[in-house]
Write a structure and sequence with these properties.
α4 packs across α12, α6 runs antiparallel to α7 and α9 runs antiparallel to α10. It contains 13 helices and no strands. The chain has about 290 residues and is mainly alpha-helical. The longest helix is centred in the N-terminal third of the chain and has 37 residues. The two termini are about 10 Å apart. The protein has one domain: MetI-like (MetI-like fold), CATH 1.10.3720. Helices cover about 70% and strands about 0% of the residues.
Length: about 290
């Protein structure tokens, strides 16, 4: 595309164009879409419900009837794996949304207000960084119990610190720009300057970090479920399925499908999310041509 054709494009449009040229990121993006659609559609079209137990079919290996085999209670592992994907995706997206809401608001206020307020707010973030993150999550989960709402709220509330630092740094670099000074001169209020002028200009780094936060949160949820502190029955997630499969490993017989299939779906999803995040980071890099 010629320079003349690029003149009328916004920085976001140019970044998305660069992202579209990144082959690995695009393959990961479409593979991620395929996995996401499968988590929505497979449980709807499968003749086997994810809670239907058929004890006579317990621990069956993959076959023409059960493509991914069955679990300890004779339930279709394929349906349960994709239902688990729904929960894992939902936890990742919702927890990331909570993290963004807190981190962006906190970091933008700290960076724009500056001075002692900024120093005090960021020292609080430093204190939180010094605390054992996962240990605190486990304590809170133990107190509040195991359910979907608690999982994503707790993970989101413990994942916002890095986002606040990123947003603060971006706001510090923007608040002395001419368009911000002009808004101040016109009497625009501080909340309006932050929401209307600051946040649209830091959208790129926020999107990039959000994309990288989703797999981190999904991995944390899988770890908690593996420990028995995350999602509980009858709901399921990839971490809970892997935990159940790992419990079936023994020297006499290895029920490999109970670990391989949900583990593979989790690994593919995390790889794709990280690849998409890396692609977006490169695309929004102002040094890219």
């Amino acid at each position: 595309m010629t320079a003349a054709a690029l003149e009328g494009r916004s920085p976001t449009q140019l970044a998305l164009r660069r992202f579209g040229k990144n082959r690995r990121a695009m393959i990961s993006f479409w593979l991620l879409i395929a996995v996401g659609l499968s988590t929505l559609l497979v449980p709807l079209v499968s003749p086997h419900g994810y809670t239907i137990q058929k004890l006579e079919n317990r621990k069956q290996p993959p076959s023409g009837t059960y493509w991914m085999g069955t679990d300890f209670n004779g339930r279709d592992l394929m349906v349960r794996s994709f239902m688990g994907g729904r929960i894992s995706f939902a936890v990742g997206l919702l927890a990331t949304s909570v993290s963004l809401l807190i981190g962006v608001a906190y970091g933008a206020c700290a960076g724009f207000l500056g001075g002692k307020t900024d120093a005090l707010m960021m020292r609080f973030v430093d204190v939180l960084y010094g605390l054992p993150h996962m240990f605190l999550v486990i304590i809170v989960m133990t107190i509040l119990g195991r359910n979907f709402l608690v999982v994503f709220m707790v993970l989101g509330c413990f994942s916002w610190m890095t986002m606040s630092r990123i947003v603060r740094g971006q706001v510090l670099s923007l608040k002395e720009k001419e368009f911000v000074e002009a808004a101040r001169g016109l009497g625009v209020t501080t909340p309006a300057i932050i929401s209307r002028h600051m946040l649209p200009n830091i959208l790129g780094p926020v999107i990039v970090y959000a994309t990288l936060t989703v797999p981190s949160v999904m991995l944390q949820e899988a770890f908690l479920s593996f420990l028995g502190l995350g999602i509980s029955e009858p709901q399921t997630s990839w971490g809970l399925l892997i935990s159940d499969g790992a419990g079936a490993l023994n020297p006499l017989r290895i029920f490999w499908w109970l670990v391989v299939f949900p583990g593979s779906l989790l690994a593919i999803t995390l790889f794709c999310l990280n690849s998409v995040g890396d692609g977006l980071r490169d695309a929004f890099d102002v040094q890219q041509k």
